[in-house]
User: What shape does this take?
Amino acid sequence: MRPGDVIQTKRDYGELSPEQIDAFVTAAARLDGSGWEKYHLTALLMAIYLNGMTPGETAHLTRAMADSGKRLDLSDIDGPKVDKHSTGGVGDKTSLILGPLAAACGVIVPMMPGRGLGHSGGTLDKLEAIPDFNVNLTEAEFRAALKNVGLGMIGQTADIAPADKMLYSLRDVTATVESIPLITASILSKKLSEGISGLVMDVKSGRGAFMKTRASSRALAESIVKVGTANGLKVSALITAMDAPLGRYVGNALEVIESIETLKGNGPKDLTDLSVKLAARMVGIALGLSDAAAGAKVRAALASGAGLEVFRKCIEQQGGDPRVINDYSLLPHTDATVQVHTDRTGYITGIDAEKVGIAARMLGGGRSRAEDKIDPAVGIIVRAKPGERVTPSDSVFEVHYRDGAKLAAVMPLLAGAFTVGDAPPSEAPLILEEIA
Ligand code: URA
Assistant: This one.
């Protein structure tokens, strides 16, 4: 099969056959001299970006990408295996909370989250803020974590969906990332490789999200539900607001603290509510419970401290220092903080999540390029959230910084990252839509 013919099919709005998709994916996984070169791959990616794919094509692409590498078989570990995936947001630390809560309710949670890129954070970076926490477990160690704790959180190994690694790196530099079929196949191929039977998707929507509009978020959520279901997964998707940061803490070590506080029952309402809701969806899918019954189980695990205990065991199992649960001074922290004030009295009407995320990245807490090193200690605490009253003596942001030059660069950004009005804004819902 000639690559040019495959590209032409999609260029001319045709439907790719399973054999054509297989040839493309095999080439992406290993350019083995079969006639495909990177320029063929990128030309086809652009044709898909422009002309789309049918759900059937996307489902086949997803399966082929998962099969391009190793698919974990966890059938020897008792219990339903369910994961959650978020499309990424600012202050979104729910995985550190809902993973332990779902595991405390009897779900096996084999998480392989990603690292932060751009303005949004990544679960692996947050976990690595915990001294000695190892996200590079061997498969045997990962299985032991799932058996002993019910929860394992590791980075994707090189043999998970290698076709996605190649295709994502090409999409990243050829303006073909924002394609619903390509995003669907990219996310789900990696999830299928985890050996799960169920997935809860948190599709973020708003100015701090990858998907800025409700329509694009809905299209992605619907595609993931349809294609995941076609590949044998039970999938449930929520579309949730990402206009303001989730919770108050943004930055890797800071987000670990807020996650632990939430597992202790002291978390901010938005973060607690969303974590409980997503965990309940996982429990509902895993145990076949109604939303109400699953929600009650998760809330009981939160109230009893069972979720916190799972997180403590998870840290210990993965080589980290579990004393951080009660002693936050063991986490990386900066010596210097500075407050950002408002110049007027009124109510916070908006906090721009994207600007806060960019500021956290510029302080050193995130990456612009995949190979950038991050500083786990830096970050921003949102002291005043939308709806809260402020006066000029109140802090809106508390900036934890290490480098004065970086601080100077972020201060103007943060000064423009909030708005103050005479009246509080109407309360905006956090959960915008539920799909399946
Ligand atoms: N996240 C992924 O894993 N893949 C995409 O294509 C986009 C976001």
